[in-house]
Structure prediction request, 546 residues.
Amino acid sequence: MVTELNAEENMEKIERESVLIVDDEVDLRNAIVAYLTQEGYEVQAASNGEEALELVKTVPFDILITDMKLPGIDGTAVLQEALALYPELIGIIITGYGTVENAVQAMKKGAYDYIGKPFQLVEMSLVVKQALERRRLKEENAYLKTQLKEKYRFESIIGSSKPMQEVFQMVETISGTNSTVLITGETGTGKELVAKAIHFNSQRREQKIVSINCGAIPETLLESELFGHVKGAFTGAHQTRIGRFEQAHKGTIFLDEIGNMTQTLQVKLLRILQEREFERVGGTETVKVDVRIIAATSANLKDMVDRNEFRSDLYYRLNVIPIHLPSLKDRREDIPLLAKHFIKKYCQNSNLELKTISQEAMKMLMNYSWPGNIRQLENAIERGVALVGSRNLILPSDLPHEVQKTNANLFISEIYIPDEGVNFNTEVCFLERELILQSLKKSGGNKKQAAKLLNLKRTTLIEKLKRLDLMNEV
Amino acid sequence: MDFDFEKARFSLHQLNNKIAQILAYAELLQLSLTGDKEKERNRLIITGALEARQITASLMNDMRKSEGPAEG
Prediction:
């Protein structure tokens, strides 16, 4: 019991911020010590620079408050030596009215702030609190940056399937370059995640990656959003505003759903790709930017070019390095890995004990077509974790209705792997073809109904019909 | 007789130190006082010290204007 109490006391001691007060005027020094101690700080005091430096060498203080004028070594020199030992130390200089200029010099040498004498103790306490808050935010910022980099390392993108391994290889290869990248893939396949992985593995990683979904912003606003506008450019433009391209200067811009851009914007984007310059909406000044462009689309840009809906010169400029992300049904072997990853994520988010998933539920996940790809799988798992309650096992009944309707035994009962093995992609392609043919038969050739039966968008079904050369079957 | 700026600046500096001392201990006292009357009287000490601070600051500024920038 005694040991426990001591441990608690020690913990409390460690958590309290430590302050060193250096002042040769004993009465004022004692008053500051008493006040800050009452405020909850661990306070020590020194009457001169030499004594202060001795203490600094033995105790890693959080804050050093020192009078500028001290007998012997002055306050600035004490602070400089202390900062050399502990760069994270917060230095506050106390100055008389005649030494403000010197205090400004001290700030240039690393002091956080200065406070003029005579001051109220409450003012000093406020400066200390603000300094600690700023340091906390700085530390939090550094931590979040590390977390962000960790999150978007390409090693953290889940997938052991061959198509994903090829994607990882490509991301690794191109990360060191500044080339424009075009990421294609169905919605929910993780295009933004891959774009961020490219950015955070590139030399631009210390700068921003600015994302914009060109399909989510009304056409009339997109130009101003991308390129900014000058004051008075249009009704409501009360002040000059920089656009996403300027925000991403020195970093990366991720243009999602690039196929939704109007022809006018396509011309402007082409100029950026060629010259790295543009004018803000309503402006005449040319703005130059150093930006890496990563574009993405779920549409078939080549087809759009053929239909004159997308500029061919822009297409070729964007398509310098193409990366295609496979849809989830084309990498079903990654589903167990992804499912476990999301279960862990949502259990952690909700402070729950780690749950597992029943074999039957996993089979359903494996057999479902996932038209919304990884995003849909993630949502399904999030729902499963939310509904599992006190059980440890996620059951089929915890999965979304459309997934529950999947025949869990489809693959097991209908697919036989001979001794010499199978070509996975061919088999999957065959199954896809079978499903589409069955759905068309069931719907009497009605594509809309067939798409509904397969939980696909009509346009996606048509794309598949074309890809699988089944258009004549309709 | 010429005005001794150096001596005046030193005196103001000393005065500031005394004001700092009065302010600091009045603030500490404020934390431990419980009676309303005592707290009000102590608040008057703090207000007086803060006004004295403004006066010394104003004097220091006037001297700076007359003499040019002060040295640290």
